[in-house]
Amino acid sequence: MFDALVSNFINYLKNQKRLSIHTCTNYTNDLNQFTHFCSEEFNLKSENINYQHVRQYVSFLIEQKLEPSSVKRKLSAIKSFYKYLQQQGLIKSNPVSKLIAPKMPKKLPVFVGEDEMQLLFNQHINETNFEELRNRLILELLYQCGLRRAELLSLTETNVDINQQQLKVLGKRNKERIIPFSINLKRNLEQYFSVKREQHLNNPLLMITVKNTALSTTKLTKIVNEQLSSVSTLNKKSPHVLRHTFATHLLNNGADINAVKELLGHANLQATQIYTHNTIDKLKKTYKQAHPRSGD
């Protein structure tokens, strides 16, 4: 019974809420872990679970030393599931509606410095080598356009408008947005397409391998890590760090926060405001350097 309910719920998330496959997989795993715990600890089925059982599950997760972000995600999956059951008339009340997730420590976004990014793009590459061109293009698209990893991997050649110098990106919940790009990136894209055709690589996806197959998430992450390691000592060197860097550098150089929000594809301004701390840090530095009494 429970498996069928979860299956229906996941189909609802995919078809109605238009959540990504990755998110739906996480929801499925989180719900299976929760019901397994309740079955083992209390010998209960999903429809008999109450507020106290969920609280004990959260305590169990914390005792397992899970990150607060992981606990919050698992609790979010459970809340969404029971809200769905309630909407479908399968339960009378939601046992987790009033449960508060553990507080998340505020983590500032990690980003690469402007000098380091300049150094990275100053490195010489062989412009007739497909993989070197592709790897440089990965860095350019992540940094110049602020793409998410999944957005980059799903881009096709038809999403690239060379003449208008813009990308059509399909973001979360299938929301489309248009992102402009520079004349330099236009030249790099033209060179990449030329070499791609010369090597008879006809896969419509933008990011592919020399074997004409889709570039994997693992391979993309490895490429970014290796490239950033040549200029940065950051512990974290992921595609998302370049997205953070994109937003931070725009705001530090005077971009309007609402425009940055649209470029990032954020649903609300609050998600974009995490990057403004870097702007404040820059203002403080400028103040200390320029004000006659800043050291008093």
What is the CATH superfamily label of the largest domain? Intergrase catalytic core
Q: How many domains comprise the coordinates?
A: 2
Could you tell me the number of beta strands? 3
Q: Which stretches are poorly predicted, pLDDT < 50 over at least 5 residues?
A: none
Through-space gap between termini: 70 Å
Biggest sheet architecture? 3 strands, antiparallel
Tell me what the CATH architecture of the largest domain is. Answer: Orthogonal Bundle
Please compute the radius of gyration using only Cα atoms. Answer: 23 Å
Strand order of the largest sheet: 1-2-3
Topology diagram in text:
Blueprint: H1 2-15, H2 21-42, H3 51-63, H4 68-87, H5 114-122, H6 130-145, H7 149-154, E1 160-161, E2 166-170, E3 176-180, H8 183-198, H9 217-229, H10 239-252, H11 257-264, H12 269-272, H13 276-290
Helix pairs in contact: 1-2, 2-4, 6-8, 6-10
Structure report:
57% of the residues lie in helices and 4% in strands. The chain has 296 residues and is mainly α. The chain has two domains: 2-87, Tyrosine recombinase, N-terminal domain (DNA polymerase, domain 1); 114-287, Intergrase catalytic core (hpI Integrase, Chain A, Orthogonal Bundle), CATH 1.10.443. A three-stranded antiparallel sheet has the order 1-2-3. Strand 2 (166-170) and strand 3 form a beta hairpin. Helix 1 runs antiparallel to helix 2 (21-42), helix 2 (21-42) crosses helix 4 (68-87) and helix 6 (130-145) packs antiparallel against helix 8 (183-198). The longest helix is centred in the N-terminal third of the chain and has 22 residues, at 21-42. The chain is globular. The protein starts with a helix and ends in a 6-residue tail after the last helix.
